[in-house]
Amino acid sequence: MPITNHFYNGTTRRYIALFGSLFNKDPDLSRKQSISLPRMAFEITSMSYDGTRKTGSRTMISADSGSVYTPAPYNIEFSLYVMTKYAEDGTKIIEQVIPFFKPEYTYSAYIIDGLPAMDIPLVLSSISLEDMYEADFESRRTLMWTLNFTMKAWYFGPVRDKKQIKFVDVRSYPQMQTGGGSRITVQPGLTANNEPTDNIADTIPYDQIEIDDDWGVITIIEELENGNEQ
């Protein structure tokens, strides 16, 4: 479908920050060498649609500032790289990570402003080790651990403004043959001094009252006869 209105939720940036927050470590960097080791880095390697998590595409979810359609499920593939000079340095780092993945670890995070926190599973799919060295094996050695993860992410469309109902008018005619009935109106009440009120004579027009004002509720019940107000 054509995208006519630009929007940006910053979702991928949040997922990257979410992933990186798991692996903030402070390894010992006291050894002097051409590259300071151990060192960790990560990157996104791919993204793919996950049809197994598909939900109804026309269902709306309420947010504080409006509503949004149910999100599209995508898998984000991350690779985490752990570079060390000594084998034990690598195993110390790896052993701090893998006990928490069985094979997944679940975040609870706010992905879209105004929506409740969502559970975001992160699955550890594989671990590999590469032994790299330059020239003399003993003098220049680097061990590279690669941990591959799949994040079960969600992507939302634009948040649509939520319409505010400020006036309700209900007319009831339980006696259809005689035409008798009642009319009930409900609206917010706020004085010119910004005080809540339930008196229709004291309120400013309801279309001037905002949702975050400290307003009262005005309820008026009127009897109707033959379909008309008395």
How many domain units? Answer: 2
CATH class of the largest domain: Alpha Beta
SSE ordering: HEEEEHEEEEEEEE
CATH architecture of the largest domain, by name, is 2-Layer Sandwich
Query: Can you list the strand order of the major beta sheet?
Result: 1-4-7-6-5
Distance between the termini: 53 Å
- Name the CATH superfamily assignment of the largest domain: Myoviridae tail sheath stabiliser
Shape: elongated
| CATH fold-level label of the largest domain | STM4215-like
Per DSSP E runs of 2 or more residues, the count of β-strands stands at: 12
The overall average pLDDT, rounded, is 82
Residue share in helix: 10-25%
What structural class results from the helix and strand content? mainly beta
**Beta-strand content:** 35-45%
SS element count, helices: 2
Question: Using only CA atoms, what is the Rg?
Answer: 30 Å
Low-confidence stretches: 27-35
Largest sheet: 5 strands, antiparallel
Features:
4-stranded antiparallel beta sheet; 5-stranded antiparallel beta sheet; mainly beta; 230 residues; elongated; STM4215-like; 2 domains
Structural summary, described in words:
The chain is mostly beta strands and 230 residues long. It folds into 2 domains: 11-161, STM4215-like; 168-229, no CATH class. The chain is 10% helix and 44% strand. It contains 2 helices and 12 strands; from the N terminus they run H-E-E-E-E-H-E-E-E-E-E-E-E-E. Strands 1-4-7-6-5 form a 5-stranded antiparallel beta sheet. A 4-stranded antiparallel beta sheet has the order 9-10-11-12, with no helix packed on it. It has a 3-stranded antiparallel beta sheet with strand order 2-3-8, with no helix packed on it. Residues 27-35 have low confidence and may be disordered.
